[in-house]
Amino acid sequence: MQVVLAQPRGFCAGVERAIEIVERALEKYGPPIYVRHEIVHNRHVVERLRAKGAHFVDEIDEIPKGAVTIFSAHGVASAIEERAADRGLPVIDATCPLVSKVHIEGQRYANQGREIILIGHAGHPEIVGTMGRIDGRVHLISTPEEVARLEVADPDKLAFITQTTLSVDDTRAVIEALKARFPSIVGPDTKDICYATQNRQRAARELAKIVDVVLVVGAPNSSNSNRLREIAAESGVPSYLIEDARALDPGWIEGTASVGITAGASAPAELVEEVIARLRELTSVELSELPGVTENVRFRMPSQLIDLAG
After folding, report:
1. Which pLDDT belongs to residue 192?
2. Which end of the chain has fewer surrounding CB within 10 Å, N or C?
């Protein structure tokens, strides 16, 4: 069987930074370290960090006063920051810098007196955080059809921003519908879209062109992993999202000549290696990798941990 790996796949710079922040904080301050929500959307990552002494909580009130606290890569609302300050919690912010950039853009538009149209998925932690960092009215939409139902105060005072785990392709139709209905609307350049999301989706699309089945390694609650599976499926190829090698159903690949593998931005490389090992148990494998973008982005560590950043 031909097994083809997408390039790029797996961890992005924002996820690598967030995980390193927890590890460096444990090294510097010792356990326990408290993390609000999953640091990234991957159970294996969370369990590994938990074993080292990280405690994952849903609410700030669950954290003992004075305990070192980390905000997840998805970002948090201003009210969460304020609550942490009220409780005297020393906070290390692991928000992805690209998410922080969206927060800054949204507030800048709000300061101009504009209503904000936020393109994203309701309930996603990044969306909850972004909506909670903008002073002003924010409309959340996810489809072009919702544009027609928008009710705004002034059609000439609008701006849009997007969830970082959506690509240019994901948002194109919605943005076109916004511009068609509200010609004066402003928004960030497409170059501000998360590079990692765009690169992984492009690679998944290319992968689906040349294989019989696509396996996406990622968590079921990972927005970008689910989207990779959808993109491959849209190409007409059977596509499956699997959390790890144990989730691989041999029936999916029975009789197929080629299998493609990619991984969401929060999926560790070892999970991909385990899937490959599982395939080798089922059949002989000839492994190759598609040519693609090589990512060498690195984000600066928070000031509290720079002395340990290597």
Report:
1. 65
2. C
Whether residue 126 lies in the annotated active site: yes
CA neighbor of 114 nearest in space, from 153, 66, 74, 168:
153
Q: What is the pTM of this model?
A: 0.92
Structural domains of the chain ordered from first start? 2-11+195-289 (3.40.1010.20), 13-97+299-308 (3.40.50.11270), 99-192 (3.40.1010.20)
Residue whose structure tokens are 């699309």? 205
* CA angle (298, 304, 310) in 5-degree steps: 45
C-beta separation of 220 from 192 below 8 A: no
pLDDT of 85-104, one tens digit each?
Answer: 999 999 999 999 999 999 99
